[in-house]
Amino acid sequence: MRFVAWLLVAGLALSGCGRSQQQAQPQKSLLEQGVQKLETRDYEGAAALFQQYVDQSPSLTVALQEVYRAYMTRPERPAEQAYAFLVQYEPRAGEIPVQIDRAGYYQVLGTLAFLAGKRDEYAPWFEKALQLDPQNHLAMNDYAYALAEDGRELEKALRLVRRAIAIKSNVGAYHDTHGWVLYKLGRYDEALRELRLAVQTAPDRGRFALPPRRRVRETGAQGRCARRAGEGTRAQAWTRAVAATAQGVAGGEGEVVVFAYFWSAEASASANR
Length: 273
Description:
There is one protein chain. The chain is an all-alpha fold. It has one domain: Alpha Horseshoe (Serine Threonine Protein Phosphatase 5, Tetratricopeptide repeat). Helix content is 64%, strand content 1%. The longest helix has 19 residues.
């Protein structure tokens, strides 16, 4: 799912870092030049400029947030390149002063490792995120989804996503993950209920709305659940829904989209949990 888009708060204030406008401008220029490199898919050039930007920034937290946002707001969502860049700063994670922000950093590493195909690397990052912030429902959801996609530790995945829903029950993406885990466990009646709830909660709008490819995949899953639950008529309806949803959607059914909400207002504000 979180993918994604794990987007930063657009109004993040760099002025709070105590820099003058004149001091901040050269650093912002490096960031903007890196973004321009991303637009031409010159990932090596972008990484070099982003490294200069981070090294010159007085706030590691803000710099990494901005670089993450630069990568993952690109249409191609270059998770592999974003992961390679951000993971190199893990030895400096202790410089992120706010613990829940540090947890958010490790959550990002977990999600990006999964998206980048680093199947042996994402679990330790998610575990670290939850160790630092046991209420991080975003990490719980992403971790559960990754385990379900890999078809392993499904009971653990079920516990994780249910904890996330207990903390934040109005997020359609979490119900979507819940349904997907139940589907992988063969509990089709329960999966069908959760997938329907996911569509009702976040059908087409809001930060947690399902992206088009994900909607295709999940409506397909609902059709399979309905068939296996003996609901032939509804299964046919879901099959038609898949065809309708898939029109104009590149990639079709089955593409993995994991939402990532990196140090967002919800990730950082304990009052909203």
